[in-house]
Amino acid sequence: MYLLKVSNYGGVSVKALKGIHHVSALTAKAKENVHFYTEVLGMRLVKKTVNQDDTSMYHLFYADEKGNPGTDLTFFEIPQAGRTYPGTGSISQTSLRVKDDATLDYWVKRFDENDIKHSGIIDKFGRKTIEFTDFEEQRLALVSDETNEGVAAGTPWEHSPVDREKGIMGLGPVRLTVAKPEKTHNVLTEVLGFENIGTYEHDGKTVTVFSVGEGGTGAEVHVEASEETRERPGRGSVHHVAFRVEDEEELRKWVSFITEKGYANSGFVERYYFKSLYFREPNGILYELATDGPGFESDEPFDTLGEKLALPPYFESQREEIEAKLKPIK
């Protein structure tokens, strides 16, 4: 396995991260959000739960057929959220993987039929891509897995309104936009074990590509250098990106590793569906490290994932109070 060893910090050894775990964003309208991501993009709502740090808001998870690690795009609902003013210190684009180049032709037609703004098919770092936005200007892209040789994709849900062969298979590269790129580059390579594998130009700005673990579409972070003002987040912005860790034992090693590196962090956090660690890098990007398991079938069977409000056991005694604060979503 890939190993990182830092003898100057107590000799803590950790296995390399396995790729992207999930991306969590903000929405002001949960009902419309569910419609867009399930009926238009055809992803499966695998978990309808609450933000464990604020149970008055929904936390919605869209993914492949069962919410495999690396396939989850999640949303916190904040009804009063204002618009996003894009800028630096942000996760400025989330991409979603599809099978091959030909599949993008299907999505161009689908986007046109649904009046979704998009770029058409473009080339980005050797891959065919379509950039688009959702109804709240969430910045998204579809990326072809035609040439992917890295982290395996997930499996689209067979009951999706999108043909299974054309469906979204998981998360692709995330793009960060930062004012001081060298600081983010350093965290990715010297702390998280990513490798610098190249650059490309995007809207006149240089983007540096970093890869981790097995690499490929599901294991890249693209860092865009920008001198814009700092982003003011709101609906349509991204809250954090999470990277994959094998299991709880490995995550606890990462807690020690990040602490010894001198970064303030959350310590070990129990999320029930996975275990987590959070810390913020110098440009303000919030990173999470999350375990691959236990997964979303911990409290619901595969066939009915996401159909009811799911609460971790430690919130179950508060179900009546929590449900009273939430507007039902069908």
Run of helices and strands: EEEHEEEEHEEEEHEEEEHEEEH
Secondary-structure content class: alpha+beta
* Overall pLDDT metric: 96
CATH third-level topology: 2,3-Dihydroxybiphenyl 1,2-Dioxygenase, domain 1
CATH superfamily: 2,3-Dihydroxybiphenyl 1,2-Dioxygenase, domain 1
Largest sheet: 8 strands, mixed
Helix content: 10-25%
Beta-strand content bin? 35-45%
Specify the CATH architecture.
Roll
Total number of strands:
18
Task: Enumerate the spans where pLDDT stays under 50 for 5 or more consecutive residues.
Answer: 1-9
Q: Strand order within the widest sheet?
A: 4-5-6-3-15-18-17-16
Terminal residue distance: 44 Å
Total domain modules: 1
What's the CATH class, please? Alpha Beta
* Shape type: globular
What's the total helix number? 5
Radius of gyration: 19 Å
Organism: Paenalkalicoccus suaedae
Domain VOC: 19-145, 170-292
Pfam families: Glyoxalase
Keywords: Dioxygenase, Oxidoreductase
Written description of the protein model:
Keywords: Dioxygenase, Oxidoreductase. This is Ring-cleaving dioxygenase. With 330 residues, this protein is of the alpha+beta class. It has a single domain, classed as Roll (2,3-Dihydroxybiphenyl 1,2-Dioxygenase, domain 1). The chain has five helices and 18 strands. The radius of gyration is 19 Å and the shape is globular.
